[in-house]
């Protein structure tokens, strides 16, 4: 008996030692089986507007991580009741549950009940494959025991609830709560928590969206389990089982209107802040962007309409960008009419900008250098510059034209002449300040004839200098980035450069308003004040065909550009009309988005630019003789004056072949010449004079006074 007792004790000690050694081995193996980097779960990144409202989500898996203290106790209890009722009692492996499961499987002749603990499920889902092999099951046990050693029960439950799949693309309980109930997990009721706890076993089969009846049955099973575990009273259970699903489904779908913007946010995060696209989609960041949904959706809808795109077929393309003047934040971008993610983004494609270069490469620098003023006269003649002979589109030349009118009517000859006076290198220095460095060295810069071209985003950024007192800014898409803990890890710092003086910027704004009101950009309607410039390039293979059509413009609030054309222009694919169409589209987008009411305000300390004086030839000069005392005759001349009271008229008296000025009047159409000697046979006419340009107009008809007519 004594020996038997010793053998028994020895056996028990041996079993204990073997168990201890096995346990030590399991703990030792855990260091090799557990890769803690796998515990770092993919989490969706949120794009929010400046008010913090969510615009969209970026993710590989739609998951929003949430801490356990934000998950209500009754929700935790629902999962524990149905998945692992002894969760707080075991250490990773529940031998009692395994035994019960084996017994029921034997009775049923097959697998009817699982014995895996919640920790084992976490181990399997995070660290292991789904292969049903003995080795995989052994690893599951090793990992589960080690997880229990390393983490608290609350942390394990948090990881589990954040990790599991709930169907319809939702990973983790927070994403599931948003999807099915459109509420934060902290707001879930008991029956809602029970419904979510019902899903992980078979997310598709028990989907409340696809199979509501099965979903209610499964939810009620969870409620029964909660009662059995002591978390619910029988009365409470009965009441809850009588409730409907109460869904408020909010499926996350990427708005196609936002696709270009999303891609450019991803691009900027990588280029500017060294956050790769993969990390951005997995890291659970909150990215604040300056996007305006109103503008973005207006641009998306209008760019789909073929009436704005005058091509040989309906495949003409376009690009649009709009930037906030004050901040430099990009409000809206469209990389194409049918843009799909990570496809050709036409905002990044350099194209020939045509006459949109004139304000930034010629007239702005010419004003800043003090060589010219808005009403200075420029040469407008067909002139050759070493073999380069720019021609006006309409084929007409005025010999002399003001800068104001040269810009308004987009006179090519005048622009190139002015650049030649200014100097190409001087022009390039200003373009560099505006964010457009060029290698080109020829006068063709004035007309947008460039080696590589310019992007729509570059043009919008450059014109912003005219809207904001001469300061150029680098447009941006990301205002700030916060990590999962809410810490700001990146923030936009406006990068501004002084390109022009306030005076030059204001003069350019007033002249570019003239382009919109009465020049090449007058197509379409816009109630507010708008300044801008058109541009186009020709496709020379087909007469009258256009390759690129542009409009770049700004209001007191925003600046933007529109490009139209084909990705590849050829004899079958070209624009049949020019820049009036992007002008119309730009105005319509801004009108629909509500940017059509603001007015430009002259900055303090700058001179205003008066409207141009327009000289009109007098064709209705009349005369009338009147008698005065002592037998003197007076000639009363009259004509219809210009509505512009600034117009000056010189009155000429002609005797024989000699004519001389006998008077000057301003703003009216009448003049008296006293003591006329009719024996000299005098003739009279008037000539209008422009005090802005120091130019005289065409003389009027002549009148000759006579006593008897």
How does this structure look, described?
Among the domains are: 1-30; 64-241, Biosynthetic peptidoglycan transglycosylase-like (Penicillin binding protein transpeptidase fold, Orthogonal Bundle); 357-444, Beta-lactamase (3-Layer(aba) Sandwich); 622-696. The chain is an alpha+beta fold and 709 residues long. The protein has 20 helices and 23 strands. The strands form seven sheets. It has a five-stranded mixed sheet. The longest helix is centred in the first third of the chain and has 32 residues, at 2-33. Helix 4 packs across helix 6. The radius of gyration is 40 Å and the shape is elongated.
Describe the protein's topology.
Layout: H1 2-33, E1 45-48, E2 54-58, E3 62-63, H2 73-83, H3 95-108, H4 118-127, H5 134-150, H6 153-163, E4 170-171, H7 173-181, H8 190-198, H9 212-228, H10 234-241, H11 259-273, H12 277-282, E5 286-288, H13 293-303, E6 317-324, E7 330-334, H14 357-368, E8 377-380, E9 399-402, H15 403-408, H16 412-422, H17 424-433, H18 456-467, E10 471-473, E11 480-482, E12 488-491, E13 496-498, H19 502-518, E14 531-538, E15 546-554, E16 558-565, H20 580-593, E17 622-628, E18 632-638, E19 648-655, E20 658-666, E21 670-674, E22 683-690, E23 695-696
Helix pairs in contact: 1-5, 2-8, 2-9, 4-5, 4-6, 8-9, 9-10, 13-20, 14-16, 14-17, 14-19
EC number: 2.3.2.-, 2.4.1.129
InterPro entries: Beta-lactam/transpept-like, Glyco_trans_51, Glycosyltr_51/Transpeptidase, Lysozyme-like_dom_sf, PBP_transglycosylase, PCN-bd_Tpept
Domain Glycosyl transferase family: 53-227
